[in-house]
Amino acid sequence: MQDDPIRVIDEQLLSDDHAPLKKVTFEQRRSDGAWQRQEREVYANAGGAAVLLFDRARRTVLLTRQFRMGAHLAGQDGFVIEAPAGMLDGTGPEQRVRAESCEETGYRAKQVRKVLAFMPNPSALTEIVHCFLGEYERGDKVAAGGGKAEEGEDIEVLEIDAGEAFAMARDGRIVDAKTIILLQRLQQEM
Ligand SMILES: Nc1nc2c(ncn2[C@@H]2O[C@H](COP(=O)(O)OP(=O)(O)O[C@H]3O[C@H](CO)[C@@H](O)[C@H](O)[C@@H]3O)[C@@H](O)[C@H]2O)c(=O)[nH]1
Ligand SMILES: [Mg+2]
């Protein structure tokens, strides 16, 4: 495209284990018309989907707590509180959150609805996370939850008062972006 302000010059594959990490050399036409060459490293990780489940009668939400190496390397203990979520790898977002809800928390979601999608880091990651709100009640527990041990998952299920979860997203006890976004959205809708 003649008017395209971006020209990709080269893509170098730096590593390709769990997902490809690329160094992309490109030129950008600046607002003054001059072309400027730059390099950026981008991790082409899979998209994901997350769901916040709410029990309207008891005013509770279902969250998970699991070890995350990124948080650990950032200097925290690495145990992160999150809404149930998974990577898409071939399945659609709604199917993924229904499956992850059962695998991670043991609860079957009654109904789920997509509220938004966001990119956690549009500079360095290709990842898009599709976010859903849903409802559950006590009788919807159909499995033990806890995640897949053979994949290294050892997930603690937290069923907590929604007001307490909103406070945790405000005061820093919850740092995960998708979880903060979903809690704020649920709070807005209540
Ligand atoms: N070998 C290997 N396996 C990995 C790696 N990263 C993930 N996995 C495997 O992939 C599984 C991913 O579990 P899911 O429940 O599908 O995904 P998730 O990690 O919960 O992803 C969700 O949260 C992430 C963190 O916020 C989001 O980035 C992602 O989009 C999604 O919402 C893990 O259990 C693990 O077995 C890796 O670097 N190496
Ligand atoms: Mg998960």
TrEMBL record:
Entry keyword annotation includes Metal-binding: no
Domain Nudix hydrolase: 48-162
Family to which this protein belongs: Belongs to the Nudix hydrolase family. NudK subfamily.
UniProt cofactor(s): Mg(2+)
Cited SUPFAM superfamilies: Nudix (SSF55811)
PANTHER family, sorted: NUDIX HYDROLASE DOMAIN-CONTAINING PROTEIN (PTHR11839:SF18), UDP/ADP-SUGAR PYROPHOSPHATASE (PTHR11839)
Superkingdom of this protein's organism: Bacteria
Quaternary context: Homodimer.
Identification of the protein by name: GDP-mannose pyrophosphatase
Family matches, as Gene3D superfamilies: Nucleoside Triphosphate Pyrophosphohydrolase (3.90.79.10)
UniProt KW DNA damage keyword: no
Record's keyword terms, sorted: Hydrolase
Organism phylogeny: Bacteria, Pseudomonadati, Pseudomonadota, Betaproteobacteria, Burkholderiales
A Pfam family hit: NUDIX
Species this chain originates from: Massilia phyllostachyos
Catalytic activity: GDP-alpha-D-mannose + H2O = alpha-D-mannose 1-phosphate + GMP + 2 H(+)
